């Protein structure tokens, strides 16, 4: 089947034309099969009719009187009844044991032996004697070759008389063939025309959703990503295609908006330390005293630039799926305790309460895991309210390491909570304008967790509390 359709599929044509051509080929093949089967049935029906007719006529000829003088007229009438156009296509003989040959066609040949004909194909009994096992009348049917032609024969026997009729096979179907051919001259062009129209209509209906989808794609620009295709009334396959297309536009629109916001925020975050650096360098350039250069302040701003660019690089690698991990065996309980011990005294009377389990074994990138923990802890300290108690717990739960860190904070709206993991998002400026940071910490922490087959999520809590849960697979 593939070999049949492959030439059509390889042709450089439109989808609509390909559907049209394939539909026409299928309809043509079905039409040819139907016509072949119909012709076979018609020929078989005509053969059955001829068999019945020959038996009836053979029985009638067996009743001829011995001195019948109207023999030739009977032969002509029989030829008309059997639809034989040429007398040479009809063989006939009526023979009586007492009187010999009673009737014989003009083209009968004595070389024809009735005993050599295979009569086993069909036997029709027309009457029975008192002894039901022995018929008194019978009509046998058979085929034989004679004069390089195929003949159909009927032999009727009754008592001491027999009548034999044979017709040329080709003569019985000649008129039928001519009639069918005359009908096909009209039927076939009309059927092909209707099939072509139906195929073209089918192609148009089948490609209509594709055309709509193509037209919609052409209208999509970076300024018009909100357009969506309706899928009401569409077929299931095209409805799924339209839903996939709309979902793709949703992702594309979100990605474009995120990229635009990311570019603007990155430019804004990099602008501040660069402006400070430039201002201080310009002051030194305008001053005659080079000792006025504040190197520590410059180093702080350069450190901020370095931190932002390093985080941006890690995020870009995570987005591209190329965040390389150098995994080593780790005890996260030891790592967390070391990080907490290295913390300086917390500002504004804040305290850190810890509950850390033991033997939290894990395989991961030591540098990135330290970055993750540092981002979470520093973020909780930075945005917690003065005098707040920050809670940190780390335990094994169902072969998964769960680390939960909670801190009190200024009340957060639901909209703000949805944006906590957005890049460069730093909460409400009215409450957090004094807080240093780039707004990349939580985004990077989540990407690092997911790169290690874990996740970082925001747990439900009251408006004045933030609770983060980090999950990592254990060894």
TrEMBL record:
<keyword id="KW-0472">Membrane</keyword>
<dbReference type="InterPro" id="IPR036890">
    <property type="entry name" value="HATPase_C_sf"/>
</dbReference>
<dbReference type="Pfam" id="PF00672">
    <property type="entry name" value="HAMP"/>
</dbReference>
<protein>
    <recommendedName>
        <fullName>histidine kinase</fullName>
        <ecNumber>2.7.13.3</ecNumber>
    </recommendedName>
</protein>
<feature type="domain" description="Histidine kinase">
    <location>
        <begin position="265"/>
        <end position="475"/>
    </location>
</feature>
<keyword id="KW-0812">Transmembrane</keyword>
<dbReference type="InterPro" id="IPR004358">
    <property type="entry name" value="Sig_transdc_His_kin-like_C"/>
</dbReference>
<dbReference type="InterPro" id="IPR050428">
    <property type="entry name" value="TCS_sensor_his_kinase"/>
</dbReference>
<dbReference type="GO" id="GO:0000155">
    <property type="term" value="F:phosphorelay sensor kinase activity"/>
</dbReference>
<dbReference type="InterPro" id="IPR003660">
    <property type="entry name" value="HAMP_dom"/>
</dbReference>
<dbReference type="InterPro" id="IPR003594">
    <property type="entry name" value="HATPase_dom"/>
</dbReference>
<dbReference type="InterPro" id="IPR036097">
    <property type="entry name" value="HisK_dim/P_sf"/>
</dbReference>
<keyword id="KW-0418">Kinase</keyword>
<keyword id="KW-0902">Two-component regulatory system</keyword>
<keyword id="KW-0808">Transferase</keyword>
<feature type="domain" description="HAMP">
    <location>
        <begin position="204"/>
        <end position="257"/>
    </location>
</feature>
<dbReference type="InterPro" id="IPR005467">
    <property type="entry name" value="His_kinase_dom"/>
</dbReference>
<keyword id="KW-0597">Phosphoprotein</keyword>
<dbReference type="Pfam" id="PF00512">
    <property type="entry name" value="HisKA"/>
</dbReference>
<dbReference type="InterPro" id="IPR003661">
    <property type="entry name" value="HisK_dim/P_dom"/>
</dbReference>
<feature type="transmembrane region" description="Helical">
    <location>
        <begin position="20"/>
        <end position="39"/>
    </location>
</feature>
<dbReference type="Pfam" id="PF02518">
    <property type="entry name" value="HATPase_c"/>
</dbReference>
<keyword id="KW-1133">Transmembrane helix</keyword>
<feature type="transmembrane region" description="Helical">
    <location>
        <begin position="183"/>
        <end position="203"/>
    </location>
</feature>
<dbReference type="GO" id="GO:0005886">
    <property type="term" value="C:plasma membrane"/>
</dbReference>
């Amino acid at each position: 089947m593939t070999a049949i359709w492959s030439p059509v599929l390889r042709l450089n044509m439109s989808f609509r034309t390909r559907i049209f051509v394939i539909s026409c080929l299928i309809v043509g093949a079905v039409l040819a099969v139907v016509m072949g089967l119909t012709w076979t049935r018609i020929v078989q029906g005509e053969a059955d009719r001829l068999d019945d007719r020959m038996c009836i006529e053979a029985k009638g000829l067996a009743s001829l009187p011995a001195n019948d003088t109207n023999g030739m007229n009977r032969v002509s009438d029989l030829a008309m009844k059997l639809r034989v156009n040429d007398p040479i296509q009809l063989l006939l003989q009526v023979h009586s044991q007492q009187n010999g040959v009673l009737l014989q066609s003009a083209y009968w040949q004595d070389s024809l032996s009735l005993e050599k004909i295979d009569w086993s194909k069909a036997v029709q009994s027309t009457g029975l004697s008192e002894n039901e096992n022995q018929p008194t009348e019978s009509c046998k049917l058979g085929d034989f070759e004679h004069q390089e032609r195929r003949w159909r024969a009927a032999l009727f026997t009754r008592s001491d008389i027999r009548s034999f009729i044979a017709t040329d096979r080709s003569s019985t179907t000649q008129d039928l063939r001519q009639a069918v051919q005359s009908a096909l001259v009209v039927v076939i062009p009309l059927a092909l025309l209707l099939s072509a129209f139906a195929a073209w209509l089918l192609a148009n209906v089948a490609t209509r959703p594709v055309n709509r989808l193509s037209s919609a794609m052409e209208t999509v620009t970076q300024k018009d990503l909100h357009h969506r295709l309706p899928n009401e009334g569409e077929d299931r396959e095209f409805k799924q295609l339209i839903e996939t297309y709309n979902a793709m536009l949703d992702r594309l629109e979100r990605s474009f908006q995120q990229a635009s916001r990311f570019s603007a925020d990155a430019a804004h975050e990099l602008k501040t330390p660069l402006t400070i650096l430039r201002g201080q360098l310009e002051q030194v350039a305008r001053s005659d005293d080079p000792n006025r250069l504040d190197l520590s302040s410059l180093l702080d701003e350069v450190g901020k630039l370095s931190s932002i660019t390093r985080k941006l690089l890690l995020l870009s690698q995570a987005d591209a799926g190329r965040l390389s991990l150098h995994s080593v065996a780790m005890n996260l309980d030891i790592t967390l305790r070391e990080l907490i011990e290295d913390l300086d005294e917390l500002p504004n009377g804040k305290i850190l309460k810890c509950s850390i389990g033991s033997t939290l074994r894990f395989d991961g990138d030591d540098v990135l895991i330290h970055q993750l923990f540092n981002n979470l802890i520093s973020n909780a300290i930075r945005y917690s309210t003065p005098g707040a108690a920050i809670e940190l717990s780390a335990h094994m739960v169902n072969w998964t390491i769960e680390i939960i860190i909670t801190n009190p904070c200024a009340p957060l709206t639901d909209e703000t909570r949805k944006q906590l993991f957005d890049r460069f998002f730093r909460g409400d400026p009215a409450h957090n304008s004094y807080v240093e940071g780039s707004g990349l910490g939580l985004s990077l922490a989540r990407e690092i967790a997911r790169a290690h087959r874990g996740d970082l999520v925001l747990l439900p809590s009251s408006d004045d509390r933030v609770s983060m849960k980090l999950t990592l697979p254990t060894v």
